Amino acid sequence: MKTSLKYLPIWILILTVFAACGDGGEEPQPQSEYFFRFKVNGMQKEFRANLQTQGMAMTYDTSGEVYMATAIILGDGSDGTKNFVSMTVLNEEPFDTGMSYEMQDAIAYSGVPLVRIQFTYADEDGDLYNAVLFQRNDLSMKITDDASVRFSSLSQNLVEGTFSATVLGPVSTPLGRANEEIKITDGQFKLVLYRSGL
User: Fold this and answer.
1) Which residue of 50, 71, 90, 196 lies most exposed, with the fewest beta carbons within 10 A?
2) Upper half-sphere CA count for residue 10 (Cβ side, 13 Å)
3) Does the structure show a pLDDT above 60 at 65?
4) d(C-alpha 117, C-alpha 103), whole Å
5) pLDDT tens by residue, 84-128
């Protein structure tokens, strides 16, 4: 009897610890390993997948005339009109690791030259900036659009890489695109990859 009473405080401590770990029956959610991070004019931004409310992924479509990788990344509190990034990369052949895909390196789609990358960034206020045009001198608007993407890892269900962009805006329906230039630098991503058309 003395022996069992001697261990009673230890058992109470163990039961207390286990009871404290419970939170009303909900299972703890694992932290996401997926991310999309970059700097906007030197200020760090990072979007992480929240497994309870949103996923984060890139699609890789091989069923069309060109190969296409697309990612639409929503930040915390985004409703699809603010705090998001959209990136589409086109290529004539399957994507490869270690290659730099450059926006201004045209790709022919049905005989029409297109920019290889389209990049859109919307800030927390909903101001929209994009890189979608070939660079040229134009007196009416600034056209310094640019973007670059490099895949460092490309497996069946995971993609990792780096990116940068020069986007312009804000874009508005009545006025078109303004001439404010934003530099997107030090971009990195690790995303789930969904493949189609293989």
Assistant:
1) 196
2) 5
3) yes
4) 5
5) 999 999 999 999 999 999 999 999 988 899 999 999 999 999 999
Burial 38-64 (b: 16+ CB within 10 A, else e): beeeeeebebbbeeeeeebbbbbeeee
Cα–Cα dist 187/181, whole Å: 17
Give the Cβ contact number of residue 170 at 10 Å. Answer: 18
**Which H or E run contains 55?**
none
- Tokens standing for 136? 């040229």
The predicted-structure confidence for 7-44, as pLDDT tens digits, reads as follows 434 433 333 333 334 444 444 334 458 899 999 999 99
Residue 5 burial (CB count, 10 A): 8
Res 75: pLDDT? 87
Query: Is there a contact between 83 and 123 (Cβ–Cβ < 8 Å)?
Result: yes
Domain spans of the chain? 32-196
Q: Tokens for 131?
A: 């890189």
Reported as type and span, the H/E element at residue 16 is helix 8-21
Record the pTM: 0.80
Count of Cβ atoms closer than 10 Å to residue 179 Cβ? 11
Interacting residues of 83 by C-beta distance below 8 A, sequence separation 6+ = 74, 75, 76, 77, 122, 123, 124
Q: How far is CA 183 from the centre of its chain?
A: 16
